[in-house]
What does this fold into?
Amino acid sequence: MARFILKQPIRFNDGVGFSITNGNEDIVLRDNVTVTFNIGQDVSTDSDVSFDDVTIPLIDINDSTLRIADQSISGSLSVTGDLTISSNLVGLQSATVNGILTAGDFKTELSQSITIFESGSTAFGDTLDDIHNLTGSLNTSGSIVLNGLSFNEISNTIVDGAATAIVTENALKNYVTEQTDDFQNYLRKSFAHTGSFVNATTQSFTAVTASSPTGLSATSVEDFMFFNNGAFMETDALSIKQSGNSMFLFVNTDSIGYDINNDDEIVAFGKFNS
It folds into this structure.
């Protein structure tokens, strides 16, 4: 049988990740030569193939449903199991999380500035001109600090003058109405009573002086006018004292210039209770 000898030799050269037995040698087929090409690992369809590094400009998966190119992923991606990202994850569109999202700090920027801290505290806004609009009801516990002033309740009554309570419109209305009524009732009290002779310096009136409401000075002799037989008695010479159901008038006879007689009629006009 004739033997064919190549006029020009054949040479198979090794490459990166590619080795050849009897490679890098001239083969002229004078003798039988077996050449084996080896890529370093099994690449059968059921093999576990690994690469140190792969550079691919574009990957289309499932008829371009998922495309990886230019350092970006377009399309839908479903991840089963844990996904660990060692650097920043930047999403240009919406993100939907059906389970629990856990983060050390949760911070939003651009359209809004909200930071949710691991401790449970939350910071809304980053400048004094930020405006936060809430629609619906607000249920809060604890205290609220406004420009350094702390308050911990909104009260519907005004009782003890607490410095940490804000009153409602109803509480303020009731308080003002009550105070107004007390003031008006007190200011309207103007009654006259005739005294009874006790001695040359004292008269007794069967009447009770009106009690002044909070905010006004206590009822005193300045809230009365006294007349002796129709003549005005100077207030500087007088003093009063309530004792039970009787009010006593004391006259400084040296200051006023005369004594009180048994037949004098002294009339008091002023803040009696009735």
Q: What stands out?
A: The CA atoms of residues 107 and 115 lie 4 Å apart. The helical segments are 169-188, 253-256. The longest strand covers residues 238-243.
